[in-house]
Amino acid sequence: MQKKESGIRRFEVVSVVADGPGCREFTGQLGTVIWCDPAVYRRGEWTEWGYCVYFPTLDRYASFLESSLQPTGRLDAEEAHQGRRFELSFDTVVGEDADVVEGSYRVPGRPWEIFLFEKRDIAEPRHHFSTWRSGITGLEFFLPKRAVLDREAVLRGLAEVFSTQDWVEVRGPDSLLLK
């Protein structure tokens, strides 16, 4: 079975052509594909490719299937989508104490990556850089079960790993699509 190839490339400028649920506010907008999620073979047929698209005029990220997008044939420079400051984006609202917190981050000179903070049965905090199945890279940070895992714990962990307190919270891409 030959793998279904994508008709849209990473950093390609696309136009949203669908106007169904989840697309309507983006219809006609131009954006840049920052991540491609490959099609998978399921139940005897190929699924569509998924894409994370950045819309500079809206300063927003959104996810689309290939059939919702029209490629323009133009490519943005990859450097235009690399970080210029230390940014993080939480996938969900972080409560007072969670078991897992996920999101994305971007540091100067790097593209968006993902973070996963999770409580584990360990004595001391630990972390490592990881590559997920999709090829996206990022940080896994584990805390002891007795620790409080909230927004401040994530900021402290990122500050420790990257040696900076200068994190700015923004609306970045959803880590679940990226990984």
Automatic annotation (TrEMBL):
Domain of life: Bacteria
Name this protein carries in UniProt: Uncharacterized protein
Species of provenance: Archangium gephyra
